[in-house]
Design brief:
This protein has seven helices and no strands. By secondary structure, it is an all-alpha fold. The chain has two domains: 81 residues, Rna Polymerase Sigma Factor, Chain: A, CATH 1.10.1740; 68 residues, Orthogonal Bundle (Arc Repressor Mutant, subunit A), CATH 1.10.10. Helix 2 packs across helix 3. The chain is elongated, with a radius of gyration of 21 Å.
Length: 164
């Protein structure tokens, strides 16, 4: 048997053994079945492409999870750039699943906001969760409009770091 045949057999065994675990892991990170399947497939492709760099003395599973995590985070970053932090209600007939996902997203963002100083947290909460305009926030917090703009801009950067 040639080296290529051995490599392909090895990859098949790894996919059979870990595909379900990696899919579950990416599903938890991404919260979307289709994206999780794409991330899982990409993880095994990268695993295959970089197999020559793998230290055979180390376990495979943590390396696969690291690859899957990095791919999932790349997908999240890409999607954030496209959609931003936007939780507008899409319609009155929104599915229960969509509502639960939005509720979970809000919970994640609220947890991240708790790690940010109050000076930045209050304007961000008003902006994202109370749907207030910059002018309304300035009036409510008794701050100059430019101060509110600056705090929201800086707060968004801090929030992004906490979420990644």
């Amino acid at each position: 048997m040639s080296g290529i045949d051995n490599k392909l057999e090895f990859i098949e065994e790894v996919v059979k053994k870990y595909q379900g675990k990696v899919l579950g892991y990416t599903r938890k990170i991404l919260g979307d079945e289709a994206m999780a399947e794409d991330a899982t497939q990409e993880a095994f492709i990268r695993f295959y492409e970089n197999l020559d760099k793998f230290d055979t003395k180390r376990p495979i599973e943590p390396w696969l999870y690291k690859i899957a995590k990095n791919i999932s985070l790349d997908i999240i970053r890409k999607n954030r750039k496209l959609t931003g932090l936007n939780w507008e209600i899409e319609s009155e007939e929104e599915s229960v699943v969509t509502k639960v996902i939005k509720r979970e997203e809000r919970g994640v963002v609220r947890a991240a906001l708790k790690k940010i100083g109050q000076m930045y947290r209050k304007p961000l909460e008003a902006y994202y969760f109370d749907n207030m305009s910059y002018k309304q926030i300035a009036k409510a917090l008794k701050l100059p409009l430019n101060t509110v703009r600056t705090r929201i801009r800086r707060g968004k950067k801090m929030l992004e770091k906490e979420l990644l």
